């Protein structure tokens, strides 16, 4: 291990991978990527979240000319495809994803520290992080850095550094529910009824007291295998993903919901008679936890009005998609046909820590705007923007907040991350 790194990235999900790779490619000499699991990918692998939600303008069909997110995300898609791990540009193989991310990070020359948890932040003064304290098999120790990028998904580094954070919706603080994804194999798809019929059967089971999941319907997707169905349909409400006890309770409750759903499918839904429970995610999926207070707070109005900012570092058109934080029901609000919105660089900049960038779902936004930007393609683009900005700031000897956003955008365009005029 080096004594000090130019850039330290905490969290090795798609966001963190993109941040670390972009930083290294943009000229940072020493870049360290810290990940708590023994593999990269975050929600795409540890959470088994699948498929990719839309990375196109709010316009169907989803064609190349309507694509919004490129750059490192596009590279990931292409590498997945080469190895047979991508279908319809959205469905991917989580095991192949692990391999693809390993290769991209190693090829870039990023140093990786797996099985490592960031558990503390040391500041030299009120506004500067000097080092992070990590815990792993080697012990508990400090690693110094010049600029830090928080890609933990929960704004852990930002929170420990004293950045103000918000959680959930304004009225009660409840965040979107957590979900444990799981898969059922050996399904006879030729005998599966329609989604409407499956939901009719599900509502009957709910009425009989056989289902205790508060979700109002059954949400499932295709996988790479024709006989395997992916379920993103459990719902754990009113639990805080940043509270260890509540997160533990959520994991326990979610696994019960997974098996309850499987028993329902096997008993009542044609095509599932000979199926088996193939796998559940290593960890529960977290839609929402902390959101930092940054130099700009993205709002629902910005999203739905398709606002483009002078310092937009990526673009998105995914719906406002709010799973009820306290029970059943899901609110969907779509952008105008063909429209999209920008996410300003200022949303990645905390208001009170100079050498920290935050990327991924904890960026500065409202609860409603967060429900749109939280999806994996957008988070990957935010990671690339943060890594590029950090490297440029190192080169210029300035803080990230002092960086000319137009120079950053020009670099992102040169790197192929932004292809809009």
UniProtKB/TrEMBL annotation:
<dbReference type="GO" id="GO:0046872">
    <property type="term" value="F:metal ion binding"/>
</dbReference>
<keyword id="KW-0004">4Fe-4S</keyword>
<dbReference type="Pfam" id="PF12831">
    <property type="entry name" value="FAD_oxidored"/>
</dbReference>
<dbReference type="GO" id="GO:0016491">
    <property type="term" value="F:oxidoreductase activity"/>
</dbReference>
<dbReference type="InterPro" id="IPR036188">
    <property type="entry name" value="FAD/NAD-bd_sf"/>
</dbReference>
<keyword id="KW-0560">Oxidoreductase</keyword>
<keyword id="KW-0411">Iron-sulfur</keyword>
<dbReference type="GO" id="GO:0051539">
    <property type="term" value="F:4 iron, 4 sulfur cluster binding"/>
</dbReference>
<keyword id="KW-0479">Metal-binding</keyword>
<keyword id="KW-0408">Iron</keyword>
<dbReference type="InterPro" id="IPR039650">
    <property type="entry name" value="HdrA-like"/>
</dbReference>
<protein>
    <submittedName>
        <fullName>FAD dependent oxidoreductase</fullName>
    </submittedName>
</protein>
């Amino acid at each position: 291990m080096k004594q000090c790194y130019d850039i330290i990235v905490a969290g090795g999900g798609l966001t963190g991978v993109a941040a670390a790779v972009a930083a290294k490619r943009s000229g940072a000499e020493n870049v360290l990527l810290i990940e708590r699991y023994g593999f990269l990918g975050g929600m795409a692998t540890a959470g088994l979240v699948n498929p990719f939600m839309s990375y196109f303008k709010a316009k169907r069909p989803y064609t190349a000319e309507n694509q919004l997110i490129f750059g490192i995300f596009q590279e990931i898609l292409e590498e997945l495809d080469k190895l047979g791990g991508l279908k319809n540009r959205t469905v991917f193989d989580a095991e192949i994803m692990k391999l693809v991310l390993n290769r991209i990070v190693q090829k870039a020359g990023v140093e990786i520290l797996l099985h490592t948890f960031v558990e503390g932040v040391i500041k030299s003064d009120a506004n500067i992080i000097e080092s992070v304290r990590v815990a792993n098999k080697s012990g508990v120790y400090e690693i110094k850095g010049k600029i830090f990028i928080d890609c933990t998904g929960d704004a852990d580094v930002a929170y420990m550094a004293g950045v103000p954070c918000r959680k959930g919706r304004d009225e009660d603080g409840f965040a979107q529910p957590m979900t444990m994804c799981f898969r059922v194999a050996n399904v006879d798809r030729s005998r599966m009824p329609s989604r409407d019929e499956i939901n009719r059967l599900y509502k009957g089971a709910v009425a009989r007291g056989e289902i205790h999941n508060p979700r109002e319907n059954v949400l499932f997707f295709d996988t790479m295998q024709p006989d395997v169905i992916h379920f993103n349909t459990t719902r754990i409400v009113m639990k805080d993903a940043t509270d260890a006890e509540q997160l533990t309770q959520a994991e326990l409750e979610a696994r019960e919901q997974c098996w309850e759903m499987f028993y329902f499918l096997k008993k009542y839904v044609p095509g599932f008679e000979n199926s088996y429970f193939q796998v559940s995610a290593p960890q529960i999926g977290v839609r929402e936890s902390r959101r930092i207070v940054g130099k700009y707070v993205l709002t629902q109005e910005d999203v739905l009005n398709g606002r483009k900012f002078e310092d937009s570092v990526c673009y998105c058109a995914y719906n406002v998609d709010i799973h009820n934080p306290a029970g059943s029901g899901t609110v969907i609000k779509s952008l105008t046909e063909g429209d999209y919105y920008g996410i300003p660089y200022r949303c990645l900049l905390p208001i009170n820590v100079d050498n920290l960038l935050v990327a991924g779902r904890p960026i500065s936004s409202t609860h409603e705007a967060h429900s749109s930007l939280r999806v994996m393609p957008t988070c990957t683009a935010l990671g690339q923007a943060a890594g590029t900005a950090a490297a440029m700031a190192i080169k210029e000897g300035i803080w990230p907040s002092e960086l000319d956003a137009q120079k950053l955008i020009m670099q992102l365009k040169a790197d192929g991350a932004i292809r809009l005029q």
